[in-house]
Amino acid sequence: MAEIVPFRAVRYAATRGRGLGRLLAPPYDLVTEQQRDELLRRDPDNIIHVTLGEDRPGDGPASNKYTRAGDAWRTWLESGVLRRDPTPALYPLEQSYCAPDGRNLQRRGFMAAVRLHEFREGIIVPHEKTLTAPKADRLEVIKAVKANLSPLFGLYRDDAGVTARALDEVALSEPAAETDSDDGVHHRVWRAEDPAIVRPLQELLARERIFLADGHHRYETALVYRRMLQEQDPALPEYGGHHYILFFLCPMNDPGLFLFATHRLVSGLQGFTVEGFLAKLSRYFRIETLAEDARRPVGRAWAISKLGEHAGKSTTFLMVTAEDRRARIVTLRDDVDLSATGLPANETLAALDVTVLHTIVLQHLLGLSPGSQEKQENVTYARDAGEAVNRVLSGEQQVGFLLNPTPMWQVEAVG
Whole-angstrom Cα distance, residue 67 to residue 186? Predict the structure, then answer.
């Protein structure tokens, strides 16, 4: 099954506290334009200069955000801002954070280089469709920088607790790096070189599949990049770096694991009215208009909590509309014929909230073709529920659909 190997990480020379924290940035797809601009100004060595640079007047093929990313990366390596570790290792990571439900959690796993496999091989298992634009963007970044800049998030089964025992042993030593990120998460990273730690983890993953929880676009981009390099030079080694990608790997039964939902925002709908859309929507869904004012923080929080009450019980969305600034709980009815909606034949896949949203709501009712969705012509994404609601109520987006996180059993079942 999955092959994981130690690797020589490129890390910031700063390893502690604010000196390291000010250099960090969220994953590229979680950063708003305002956040990006603030991070670009914060520090000339912040990783955002590489992961999500800005377009500038006069940009062209010879000079653009991608060439600037490559230049920054090489400059940092030459100047000592970044350093490559002298020997390969796995990198255990502990993240302490507050979950959306208010619980203080501690997620533990480790970073490793994971051998790439086509999805059809069934070793790396996806559960989301990908979009064209983000993949094209990520390909240009990796071509310019020639490095994996942030880990994908992978899940695997570990019923015997091999990972927990290994991480308990590693945690007895001093972390290699420790800091807080802007979102309040406390990060501690170790290096694990001891074969007594590394080998059991390799043997465990060799029996398991990896379920891709986050990073579908980057994974597919890595596959494209590998094929591109192999076409350019068929003599490249079988175990070259282009055959591997950086993962953060976490057991499915880790007590600190919490999967976050990705919400959908829709704009550019010609002739859209709330009244007309509710009439269409009611053919397949029960609709509850919430009395609380979603413009007020308490009303917004209450609406999001109402969505959470349906988690794992029904296919339900929180729909927010800019026209009337109202929030509604929308739940799939179990007494209607869905055969004409285009849902996939695979019952497990068809039961996913995200599949129902994209197939019935976005495609069948709003008329957004799979191609237009893939190109993000009308649909954009937000991870933070509060941000999603605000972007609709401000009028930036016409409609927002907030989802519950995909339950772990569904992630595994889709595979």
Answer: 32
